[in-house]
Amino acid sequence: MSNKKQYLTPAQFKAEIEKCLGCPNKPCMKACPVGCSPQEFIGFAKEKKYKEAIEAILNRNPMGETCGLICPDKFCMSACTRKNLDFAINIPKVQATLMKNYRSFAEKKRPESQVTKDKIAVIGAGPAGLAAAKELAENGYITYIFEAKDHIGGALKYIPEERLPHEALSADCDGILSSPLINLKLNHKIENPQELLKQEYNGVIIAYGEQNAIKLNIQGEEHTTCYKDYLSQPEKYKAAQNIAIIGGGNVAVDCALTAKSNGAQNIEIFVRRRLTDMKISRQEFQELFEKEINITALTSPEKIEKNEKLSLFIHRNHIVENKAVALSDTTIELKGFDLIITAIGSRADKLTEDINIIMAGDCKEGSSTLVEALASGQKAAQKLIYNIEKKDN
Ligand code: SF4
To answer: pTM, whole model, 2 decimals?
Structure first.
């Protein structure tokens, strides 16, 4: 079920696209990690050429609707020249609205190569793996995606429905998987990518995200719940009314919004640095404030105690030479939490690339936005294709 607020109304859509100045140097395109050109798709939309508009999006971005819904404003919008006159065009929402309303006009992007080539394995069906698979298929490679879980989408699956309607994510994933050259194998955990090269695969892209949640390394940590556990099964924690969330990024926001939908009364996010250092968009801040979710900045957890409820001991920080430094004698005990969620990110196991094994997405670059993960997947596929074709020549 989609949330209407996520998309533009016809009047809003018209107003947004009419603002485009058609800047000759295309700053919006240059700021997009996958090189999508808002000027181009907005131009087509102005002429009501929706098929061409959709193709212009899909030509660079295989997850056009999902990106439009969750892309932060730091890419195309922050580069939009229109902000010098009044406000930047809400490019992500224009893109999401176009995809939602007109996707069926042009589901297929560029035709896939008629000549099929080698078999490539992609490990992980998150955004980087999906983008890599799409890029490989478009270049004629038969691609097998191996996913350890029983679903695709990776960390996108954890984003609450109200921020990312699941039907939008499914529509984008279906579009990618509609390629006849892409095969999906769910519930397939690959322990050793090298083994795939000994089988029939000529190359491997590793894109399995960051699997190991980062620990707080404080006393009582065993009483906390990791964001992955919380977001994958929020219904298990429905009884929790008072929730503390430790972390200042998107997953902390996802946990807070999910907790609110789950019926929690009091939700407080504890952030090590300043509010302005939080890596979340203005829209996410707005959502948190609208939902009356508290944010306490410049605090770090010290220990957790469990009695009838959970107590969180925190101290205050200040910023010295751009680092968060503890202020002495500021420790306080905050009592009465039912649940303390850690949402400070994850790390990937380090693997070594070689000519036939290329890494992509968060397991290579660290946590990133969706559009950066897509760009990383596309680049990894291009690098692998280059390596294979160079070797063959
Ligand atoms: S920068 Fe903004 S105004 Fe200029 S072409 Fe891109 S979307 Fe249009």
So the answer is: 0.86
